Amino acid sequence: MAEWGRGERAGDVGLIVSELATNALVHGSLRGRLFRVRLVMSATVVRVEVSDPRGERVPRRRRGVVSTSGHGLVLVSGLADRWGTEPRTVGKTVWAEVELRVGAAVTRPSAPGRSGG
Description:
The protein has helices at 10-27, 72-79; strands spanning 36-41, 45-52, 82-87, 92-99. The protein is α+β, with helices and mostly antiparallel strands. The chain has a domain at 7-59 and 76-99: Histidine kinase-like ATPase, C-terminal domain (Heat Shock Protein 90). The protein has a 4-stranded antiparallel β-sheet, with helices on one face. The radius of gyration is 16 Å and the shape is globular. Mean pLDDT is 81; it is low at 105-117.
C-alpha cells in the first residue's frame, strides 16, 4: 500500500489480507492445491481477493459465538466497506473492498538510501 502511495489504509488492508488468507488456509485448502491472494487498486478502491479450491465452503459471519476463534469475518466486516464471495470454475473467491479517501495526499516512497523531498 505504501508503494502505491496509499499508506493510510495499509494496516486495515493488511489485516483483511491476513484474515482472508488464514480462512483460505484453514477452511479452503486441499492437499496439493494452493490458494491465491490478489490486490487490485483503482483511484478509489483497494480490492483484496483470496481464491481457494473449496467452493462448497462459503464463509459466513458467525453470531453469538463465545470463543477465541471464528471472529475473522467480523473484523473484515468492520474494516472493509463491503465484502462477499464469487464462485469460480473450481472453488471460490472471497473479496473485500476498502474505499480510499479521494483527494488524500498521495506520496511516493523515496528510493532506498535517499531522503524524501
